[in-house]
Amino acid sequence: MPDITFILADGSERGLEAPEGVSVMAAATGAGVPGIVAECGGSAMCATCHVYVDEAWADKLPAPLANELEMLECTAAERGPTSRLSCQIKLTAALQGLVVRVPERQQ
Predict the structure, then answer these.
(1) CA dist list (Å): 28 to 3, 22, 37, 70, 73
(2) Average pLDDT, the chain
(3) Of all helices (H) and strands (E), which one includes residue 70?
(4) Furthest-apart CA pair in the chain: how many Å?
């Protein structure tokens, strides 16, 4: 099971395990990680699951598809070079130890 560390807006950390194949968003909402709103439930139709992927991990993810890039234009917090929608990051064994930062706001 991949381990994920969420760095929350206040600087605190929340670690959890989630099974492979689950999205980072689903893992976060299932564990009650604050700051991941996920209004659309993982359809890449909102930007309320926006995260900043730690730079050490950014190149290990598949490139975002066009619909994700479009939604990243709508984030409430400033978009950064490693911004992703957590609903579009599927956990795999290769992502063991993934670190993401939760923005200050989603709406």
Answers:
(1) 12, 10, 9, 22, 22
(2) 96
(3) helix 66-72
(4) 32
Burial of 36 (0-12, 13-18, 19+ CB in 10 A): buried
Distance CA 3, CA 88 (A): 17
Distance CA 25, CA 38 (A): 7
Tokens at 74, concatenated: 């709508």
Give pLDDT tens digits for 38-73: 999 999 999 999 999 999 999 999 999 999 999 999
**DSSP single-letter state for residue 55:** H
Cβ-contact 5, 98 below 8 angstroms: yes
- At the topology level, CATH places domain 3-101 in Ubiquitin-like (UB roll) (3.10.20)
CA distance 34 to 28: 8
Going by C-beta distance under 8 Å and a sequence separation of 6 or more, which residues neighbour residue 59? Answer: none
- Give the length of the chain: 107
